[in-house]
Amino acid sequence: MVSVLDIDSLKFSYAGHDVFEDISLSVGRGEVIGILGPNGCGKTTLLKNLNRNLKPHGGCVMVESDDIADMTKKEIAQKVAVVPQTNEIRFAFTAREIVAMGRLPFQESFRGESSDDLRIIDDAMVRTDVMKFADRHINTMSGGERQRVIIARAIAQTPQILLMDEPTLHLDISMQFEVLDLVHRLAKEKSITVVIVSHDLPMVVRYCDRVVLMHDKRIYAMGKPRDVLTPENMRVVFNIDAELEDDPRTGNPTVRLYGSCGIGGQ
User: Which of 67, 109, 194, 218 could anchor a disulfide with 32, C-beta 3.0 to 4.6 Å?
Assistant: First the structure.
């Protein structure tokens, strides 16, 4: 698999406190990878380092062999799109206006959308099934509808890499499946590399090709869900009693959660 995102010995500190250190991994084109770990382990901070919203204190991030430290924000936005943890938008933009913002990194100042931009915007809205919301204001939509529009905006950036921070947070269960079905399909159809930060173990196992467990400021384990999410690893990292099993209907692995191991993992 061709590597699109390479992270080498990444380190980040805040107020003299190391958030994480020595983070190294490569993610291939069209691969969906999940970043897992308990609260405070640095998952969201790591994601923000991958598009230079935060500047690492050591190591580097390479996008298609280019160091993002040497790229402008506009150049990064032409390759990396972000779906943030919250999708609150205070201004009354229409859904189409929101999706069209995904084309801004490719436009010159004071010039409107080109015919190519309009085609890409329409395609993103069709693929995410938000064309029916085109003229609705974003602040009148449900959380799931807004999330689809935010994903459409990210797709309109025509990114090589899509970073998603808790993409199913606050969504009802059926919408969680719809959103991640959509993301997984787009990753495979358009060869987009997707990095998802999540707390939802069953969802990550269902949709991710590989998972990364973060613990004690480092990568504790990395690989296919079946190899990484062992009962021992989940006990150490999450302090839960759980195991991976095969779903009898699909044959795919799923996580069965039994409960907390108690204070201190006892």
Answer: 194
